[in-house]
Amino acid sequence: MFPMLALYPKRLRQFILLSVALTVLIIAILLFNRSANPGVWIVLGVIGIAGLLVSCSGSAMKEHQAETARLYDGLDAEGFIRDYSVHLGQKMPSQDTALMVRMHLSNAYASLGRFDEAERVLLEMPRKEKKKEESNLFTSFAITSNLCYCAEQKGDTEKAQKYLDELLSLRKRLEELQLSKPQSKRLTFNTELNEQCMRYLKEGKADSEALKELVKGSRQQLPKITTSLWLARAYLADGNREEAEKLLRRIVELAPALYPGKTAAKLLGELDAKQ
């Protein structure tokens, strides 16, 4: 939550000004009220500043959620990139925050079919090795997953396979690290979409049931639509034209300006031409 203040300078300034005002008020009370207990007021001041930090950070978090909702639910990728790109020029409080910003932008570029830019924004991320191996592996896993997907979308089977092999290796190492944790705290690392996309590119078919479950599990519109495009392809490969057409028309209806919508419209045109 707190790192979000770095992305929203207005909220950071608000926190600083209110903290200074509270500090001045407490100093004034201690100077002009000799009966005031300094220990009590100092504790109240610390509590007050902590409360301001939580409040301002929460406001910054809500702003960020509104920004990302514009992409993932509003499907306004162009507007999102235009306004969210400002964060690239800000000083990041941590590598995790930098990764988050670049992942969102990468997803936005990919949704428009601008895959080279989606790859570049991740490949250009400055990286520093952390002391914890798990953190370094997680960063590599997230970046490699997106790079693999971009290569798959472009139909670059050779590069996609290279990324997928690396991704599966990273997943294995991350899962091994989870074994030392209590069951309730273990993380899972899903590579199903990348694997199904790769299978489709190499074999011309994919597991439609597995893709269907991924679509069902997506809470936001963008990943749901993006995965639905691959599900429609899998349906066509299975000879299930009725379900494929239904899904393609839905994608076009929801995201006509995005890459999945344009690709779905093209597939529908090809199907109509075959009749």
Would you give an account of this structure?
It contains 13 helices and no strands. 76% of the residues lie in helices and 0% in strands.
List keywords for this structure.
275 residues, mainly alpha, 13 helices, 0% strand
List the helices and strands and how they pair.
Elements (H helix, E strand, L loop, with lengths): L3 H4 L1 H24 L5 H35 L4 H8 L10 H17 L3 H9 L9 H22 L2 H22 L13 H12 L4 H10 L3 H17 L3 H14 L4 H16 L1
Helix pairs in contact: 2-3, 3-4, 4-5, 5-6, 5-7, 6-7, 7-8, 7-9, 8-9, 10-11, 11-12, 12-13
Runs in which pLDDT lies below 50 for 5 or more consecutive residues are: none
Structural class based on helices, strands and sheet pairing: mainly alpha
Q: In which range does the helix fraction lie? A: over 70%
Q: Mind describing the biggest β-sheet?
A: none
Distance between the termini: 55 Å
**pLDDT average, as an integer?**
92
Beta percentage is: under 5%
Number of helices: 13
Spell out the helices and strands N to C: HHHHHHHHHHHHH
Total beta strand runs: 0
Radius of gyration: 24 Å
> Which shape, going by the Cα principal axes?
elongated
